[in-house]
Design a protein that fits this description.
Elements (H helix, E strand, L loop, with lengths): L11 E9 L4 H17 L3 E10 L10 H14 L3 E4 L5 H11 L2 E4 H12 L3 H29 L11 H38 L4 E6 L5 H9 L16 E5 L7 E5 L9 H6 L1 H8 L3 E7 L5 H14 L6 E7 L17 E3 L8 H14 L2 E8 L5 H8 L2 E7 L2 E8 L1 H6 L7
Parallel strand pairs: 1-2, 1-3, 3-4, 5-7, 5-8, 8-9, 9-10
Antiparallel strand pairs: 6-7, 11-13, 12-13
The structure holds guanosine-5'-triphosphate and magnesium ion.
Guanosine-5'-triphosphate (GTP) binds next to helix 7.
Length: 421
Amino acid sequence: MTKSAQIHESERALVIGVGLKSDPIIEIKENLLELEDLVRAAGGEIVGSLIQTLPAWNPATLIGTGKVQEIAEMVQESQAKVVVVDHQLTGVQTRNLEQTTKARVIDRNQLILDIFARRAQTFEGKLQVELAQLLDQMPRMVDAWHGSLSRQGGGIGTRGPGETAIENDRRRIRERVSIIKKKLEQVRKNRAQYRQSRKRHEVPSFALIGYTNSGKSSLLNRLTGAQVMVKNQVFATLDPTTRKVFLPDGPPAVVTDTVGFIRKLPTQLIEAFKATLEESAEADVLIHVVDLSSPNMLRQIEVVESLMKEFNWQDKKVLHVFNKVDIAAIEKQFQVREFPRVFVSAANGQGVESLKKMMVDMIQDLHTSVELYFRRDQEHKIYDLNREVKIIKKETASEGSVCHAQMTPAQLAKWREYLVK
Ligand SMILES: Nc1nc2c(ncn2[C@@H]2O[C@H](COP(=O)(O)OP(=O)(O)OP(=O)(O)O)[C@@H](O)[C@H]2O)c(=O)[nH]1
Ligand SMILES: [Mg+2]
């Protein structure tokens, strides 16, 4: 039931940047450039662009009527088939804009959902995208229905002819939404169980997070020898991949690569990708990968940090990795304020050894130094302990042995009865 792609291959697209007069114009321009990347990632071909700033949004068409007319002319001249607006549109606004411009009109949310729909490979990924699309569709339908009512001059209590059809559609969508949610809940449970078993075996975990196209997958490949697809494209990765990483003098750990973030990430996507996001939320350490070479680096950091707040990740341990040093101007490094941090190139391996050392430090930070006492008749337990944690020193004491070790909170709980201090 996933909707067919909104933009067809090589389809001619016109992109419209919009903002309020109070918004900084530089931001509106940056957003527009990003929208162009998104259109290309969806397969479209950009044939023109236009920016409008206005004092307040127009409820009927979002932008001013004069501008809509101008867009209609541009559509004619450029033979554009689709107009993409860098702002969320209501069902009514979409319909009005389509009537005047004679082109298909889609908004930023729909475009992002469209890209996700094209990329989804796994059963879970496809379900998540379908859920996001349905959640996005529902309010638009209500909107369109209200629009048709007012056109017929109907009001409260009058039943428009299309109304029952729309009600049926809505009921079907609601049913489908609840089926998908149930299936995704199962996926979530399975994942949680798997993570639990990893925790029991005390495997420290890292999650790569960051703006889309910052180089998360390249870094996963570099760190773990994985072969995840890398592309100079927004949202190349959708499904999480977890791989083992071998750190110098450290315990074996795992690293998860996952979907990237972007400005104005549709809320329906956040809702639908809960299971995927949880994979990062449960990691011991987040590795925030930043593209040091991007002209928008600072804003991209801001976007990621505000999403982290939204997901309640502000108390997590974060290691900042500034990637693409090989192509970034050296001055960029002076703009960096975040700690702890490391500059790397996933492309040529520069800085990756330092990164691994920092990862070991971060894991050690999760540990407390403790002493455990084993009576002679308990000494066989030291064998089990040795398999789980690194024993730094073992001493013979009266009637038994004392072991010095580094332990995580979970390990502390498990070995509580042997703890001396
Ligand atoms: N020059 C240079 N390019 C890099 C480096 N790391 C990644 N890239 C390039 O940046 C682009 C994006 O890399 P990915 O690893 O796919 O980025 P990602 O963060 O996984 O992106 P999404 O999955 O789309 O969110 C690709 O063209 C990579 O080849 C680097 O250190 N230096
Ligand atoms: Mg990726």
